[in-house]
Amino acid sequence: MDHALDVLSQRFLGGIKRGSYSHAYFVSSPDTERSENLIRRAAALLCTGDERRDISSYADFLNINCAEATIDDIRQMQAELPMRTFSDGMRVVFLKDAQLLDEKKQNTLLKTLEEPPEGTVIFLSGTESGVLPTIRSRCTKLRLPQMNDEDILNTLILEGFDRQCAEKYAPYADGSMSRARRLCSDDKAAQLCDNAEAFIKTILKSEMPFDSVKTFSKDRQSARNSAEYMLAYMRKMLENAVENGGLTDDGFTISIIGDIIKLLTETLGRIDMKYGIGAAFDRLIASTAQIIAAQPLD
C-alpha cells in the first residue's frame, strides 16, 4: 500500500547519496508522521552518511516545531547558520508544520531560504495551504502520495483497531495514518471529529449554529482539524451525488456541494493565515446559508 511512497523515497534519497540535492525542500503531506520520517532519513544521510541513524540529538540538526516557534526562535536559527558546524560537515534545519507560522515569521525566512549558507539544507514540512507562495517558490517541492480510505481502513484493522471505529473514521483521515490512529485511540480527537460532522450537518439544514463555533475556537490546530473533517464529510457527499446521477440522497446537487467545498477550503486558508477562528466559522455559516438559499434543492 505504500509502494508509491517507497518509490518516491528511494529516488529522493538516492539523489542525495549521489550528491544531487537542493538547498531547500518543502515536503507536502497531510500525514506529518510520513513527512517527518522521510525528512529525518534525509537529514541523517546528509549529516552522517547513514539514513538509518537517529538524528534527534545530532548537534548539526536543528529541529523547529513551528506550532511553538517565536520570531526570536527563527532569528536565533538564522544567526547560527553561518557559524561553523560541530562536525565540520553538513547542517540540516527542519521546520515542522510550516503552515503554522504566521505571515511575519514566514517573511523572516525568505532571505534564508533564497540564499542559505553553504553546507546547509533546509526542510519544511506541512500542507501547502497556509504557506506563502514566496516561501513555496524558494523550495524544491516534494509531494508525498496519500493513502486511500480503503488502505487506511485495512491498516487500522490489521493493527488491531475496532472494525466499527475504523470504518467510521477512516474517511476522515484525509490520507493520514497518524490521524486515523489518533481518531481511533484518542477520545478527544474522535469527539472533535463528531462535533465537526454535527456542525456541518446542521449548516446543511439551513440552520445557523453560531453558538457551536466555540467548540472549534479553543486553538488554531483544533479549528483546522475541524474544517478538514467537514471537508471530508462534504467530499463523501460529492461521491454520493456522482454515484446517484448528480443528487445526494438528501437532494443536494453537485453544484451546491462544490460551492460548499470551496467555502471550506477558503475557511482553512483563513485559519492558516491567522484570521479570527470564530469569524472564519461565522462566515462559513452565513455563506453556506446564502448558497443553499440561492440554489433551492429539487
The H/E string reads: HEHEHEHEHEHHHHHHH
Please outline the major beta sheet: 5 strands, parallel
Helix-strand category: alpha/beta
* Number of E-type strands: 5
Query: What is the CA-CA span between the terminal residues?
Result: 41 Å
Q: Report strand %.
A: 5-15%
**Average of pLDDT:** 90
Rough shape?
globular
Helix content: 40-55%
Neighbour order of strands in the largest sheet: 2-3-4-1-5
Query: How many helices does DSSP assign?
Result: 12
List segments where confidence is low: pLDDT < 50 over at least 5 consecutive residues.
none
Q: Compute the gyration radius: what is it?
A: 21 Å
Structure, explained:
This protein has about 300 residues and is an alpha/beta fold. It contains 12 helices and 5 strands. Strands 2-3-4-1-5 form a 5-stranded parallel beta sheet, covered by helices on one side. Helix 9 (about 185-205) crosses helix 10 (about 220-245) and helix 10 packs antiparallel against helix 11 (about 255-270). The radius of gyration is 21 Å and the shape is globular.
Brief characterization of the structure:
This protein has 298 residues and is α/β, with parallel strands linked by helices. The protein has 12 helices and 5 strands. The chain has helices spanning 3-17, 32-48, 71-80, 103-114, 133-136, 149-158, 163-169, 177-185, 187-204, 220-243, 254-272, 277-294; strands at residues 24-28, 61-65, 91-96, 120-126, 140-143.
